[in-house]
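call fold(seq) -> C-alpha cells
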Amino acid sequence: MDGFSRFVTNARPFATASVIVTLVAGLGMLSCQKTSTSPSPTSALVTFRVVNETFKVLLTDSAVIELARRTQAGGVKRFPNGRILAGADVNAGWSWHLADVEMVEASIELCDGRPSDVERAGVSYGGGRFCPWSATVASIEDR
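ret:
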C-alpha cells in the first residue's frame, strides 16, 4: 500500500467522526431555538409617557411592536414617530392620533414635543408628524 492509500484509510474514521460530531452539534443548536405555540399579536395598543403626559398608539406592524417591546424592556432606546391625524381614535383624551408609526433612534427636532403641544397646534404640529424624543413605553396591550 502506498503512502496516499494508507493516509486515506487511516483518515476515514476521523472524517466520519467529524461529520457525526458536526451533525449532532447542528441538531442540538436547532433544538435550542425559541419556538412559540401562540402566534404573534396582529396589533398592540401602546401607551407612551412623555414627561407627565401620556398618549396611545395602535401598532399593527409586528416589527414595530417588537421594537416597542424591546424599548420597554430597556434593550434598545427608540421613540415613536408618526403622522398626526385628526380624531382621537385609540388616543382617548386627545383630539388627535398617530398613524404610520415607526420606532426610531433619531429624528428632526421639529416634531419633538409633548402631547399637549400637538393638542394646541393640531395636525400641522411638527410638519404633520409627532416624534417625542423623551417618550418611554409605559404599557403594551396585545390586541
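Residues 18 and 77 are 44 Å apart (CA to CA).
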